[in-house]
Structure formats: C-alpha cells, structure tokens
Specification:
Rossmann fold, 380 residues, Elongation Factor Tu (Ef-tu), domain 3, single chain, 5-stranded parallel sheet, alpha+beta, SH3 type barrels
C-alpha cells in the first residue's frame, strides 16, 4: 500500500513587496501548503514620517495571495510593535545611542509574534522574503545562517538574534536568487507586486525625517559643540565652535547636518550625555578618537550557546559595510568585547556588530558605549 505524506503548511509573511510575493510563489511551486499573512504594525500619520503605506502594502499582499490562490490573513500587531520596537527605539535615542530598529523588528515581531501566531495556527514552517540562506550542518542538528547568493542584498546582518528553535522552522526561498531574478520571476508570473519599489526607511513605518521625528518625542536639551584636536603625549585640546539642540539628533560618524559653518568638514566623535556636549573633529583625525576594544551587549551566538566562536572572525558594524578583522573575547560573567586590528572609525553605540566565518554568520551583539580617554569619562 502506498503511503502519502501530508504536505507541510508554510505561513509566509507577506509584506506586499516583490520578495515575499516571490517567496510565496516559489514555496507553492515546490508543493507546500502555503498561507499568506500580512502584519499591520503601523498606521499613524505622525510628524517626521514621510511615507506610511500600510493600506497600499496590504492591498498588494492580498492581491498576490489571490493570484496564487492561497489563504490570506491580516494580523494587527500595531500595539505590540509600538511597545516592543518603537518605544525602545525612542528610549535608546534619548539615552544617546543609535539603535537598529530592523534588528528589534525581526527579533520581536517577524520571528517573535508572527512566528508564534503562525505556529499556534498549525504552521509547520514560517517563511519570509529575507535575502539569506539557511543550511543544516551535515553532522549534528545545528542550523547555519549563510549570506545570500546576492551579496548586494544580503540581510544576514539583521538576523543575528535568531535562535536554533526558530531557525529549525524557517525557510528563506529568495536567498538562493539575485534580486534581478526575483523581479523576473514576479514579472513572468504577472504578480501584482512585480514593479513595486523596495521598501525603505524604518521597518513597517517608512521614510523618516529623523530630526523632525525625534524632536516630537524627545525634549530638546541644547548644549555646546566642542571641536577636539589630538595633541602630543596623548593629550587633547578642545574649543567650542557652536551649539546644538539635542544629542539625540546626532550619531557617531555623522558629517552632514552638524550645523557648524566655516567650510571645514567636521565629524561627530563623541557625546557627553551628562553635560549635553557634542564632540566633533576634523576628517584627518577621526581615527584618533575610536578605541580598538569595544564593549558588547546582548551577545548571541547562532549556535545557541554562550561559548565564543573561537579565533579571529570577520565582522561588520554597519549594514553592507566591508568586513573587517576582529577578535571576540569574554564570557557571560565578565561580559564580551570586540578587539579590532585598527580603530573602527565611526563605530556607533546601539548599532549591531555581526561576525562571520566565510559565508556563515556566527552571531552578533549590540555595540555598547565606550570610554573616550581624552575626556576621562564614559561617553557615548
């Protein structure tokens, strides 16, 4: 007697964009029982938000689901998104950090609430339109996250918080293709989203004018802008060259929008939160103000244990940044640090440091605030 294996049910997070649309198509073509689900995470029109396209995105997702003849859900996570992503992001800015909301969003919403709701409704697997590849280790149960085939679209940087339990029930169909091919598939299948532009800006919110956006949520706290110059014997001298309206409006490494005239380009290299002072320097001395050793917070290995990846790794502290050599050291009790061969210019507290070996993403952490020796105190 021939036995028929039940088809696995996959819930696809359909954002209305071409990537998740093609992900749903590819999975259905492979024979999965595909269910589409749209997440409503933001609908409020607020100052600083230049584009909020929730209704349009949902329409695209619904039409594509109809074209594929798959069931479609719309789930309202708006209150949860505000509590788990939006408010912590604003709090981090107020403390002087520059957070990465896309990492929060993936951790708390897409692979948190969405994943849990899908599994609760009977999903065997969950899929998204992320450009990343998932592999199972040949010997052992461990799942590995690898860079996407299209290196220009690789999104492994944003997924360093995922656990082995979650990865064991995930699929990333478009990670095996380049973006051009994904668009081509969408056009060939006449999917509604084939010509839709890629989403940009804050996850689920859209384009932002960050100065206006943050000014409406964080009270201004004006202070001095101090230009710092390195002197001999590791001493530093500084002088006031202007004033600012609030440290939350600036990020380390920032060059434009500092508000200092005179024709000389300055870079932001530090913040003194206690006295509301912003420190800047000239371009030729930026490297002098960033230490080689950086503290790490929320350390996480994709392998699921707290041991270090071992030896040197390649790391990046900004999305799409060129990988640089680093050494990750420490433990749960004493904390973790990243040691670089040369000072990582414009590394920014609150952003993510993510490390790799070859094509495999090993883990990541949040960059902590570090000590600036030239001030003798911890500043952001």
């Amino acid at each position: 007697m021939r036995l028929f294996r039940k088809r696995q049910t996959v819930f696809v997070a359909m954002s209305g964009g071409v990537d998740s649309s093609v992900a749903a198509f590819l999975l259905k073509r492979k024979g999965y029982e595909v269910v589409g689900a749209f997440m409503k995470n933001w609908s409020e029109n607020i100052p600083g938000v230049l584009c909020c396209s929730t209704e349009e995105d949902q329409r695209y997702a619904r039409v594509v689901a109809a074209q594929l003849n798959i069931p479609f859900y719309s789930w309202d996570f708006e209150a949860d998104y505000r509590r788990l992503v939006f408010e912590p992001m604003v709090d981090a800015y107020e403390q002087g950090f520059t957070p990465n909301p896309d990492v929060f969003c993936n951790n708390k919403i897409k692979f948190g609430l969405f994943y849990e709701k899908a599994i609760g409704l009977g999903a065997d697997l969950v899929a998204t339109g992320h450009y990343v590849r998932l592999r199972r280790r040949l010997f052992g149960p461990e799942f590995l996250l690898k860079m996407a085939r299209d290196k220009n679209k690789d999104q492994s940087y944003f997924l360093w918080t995922l656990s082995q339990d979650v990865l064991s029930r995930c699929l990333f169909p478009v990670g095996e293709f380049n973006k051009t091919t994904v668009r081509k598939i969408a056009r060939q299948e006449n999917l509604e989203s084939a010509g839709k532009k890629d989403s940009q800006g804050l996850c689920f919110v859209g384009h932002l004018d960050f100065s206006e956006f943050l000014s409406g949520r964080i009270p201004d706290r004006p202070g001095q802008i101090i230009a710092v110059e390195p002197k001999t014997n590791d001493n530093y001298a500084g002088k006031q060259i202007g004033r600012h309206n609030g440290l939350h409006l600036f990020t380390l490494g920032q060059r434009h929008g500092i508000g200092v005239g005179g024709g000389t380009p300055y870079y932001v290299i530090g913040k003194d939160m206690s006295l509301s002072r912003l420190f800047v320097c000239r371009a030729d001395s930026v490297g002098s103000f960033f230490p080689k050793t950086i503290p790490l917070l929320n350390f996480h290995n994709i392998s699921g244990n707290d041991s270090l990846p071992g030896g040197r790794v390649m790391a990046r502290y900004r999305y799409r940044q060129k990988l640089v050599k680093a050494f990750i050291k420490g433990n749960v009790r004493t904390g973790y640090e990243a040691v670089f061969e040369s000072p990582p210019e414009a590394i920014t507290p609150g952003q993510s440091l993510v490390w790799y070996r070859g094509q495999t993403m090993l883990g990541g952490a949040v960059i902590g605030g570090f000590r600036q020796d030239w001030m003798g105190r911890v500043v952001i």
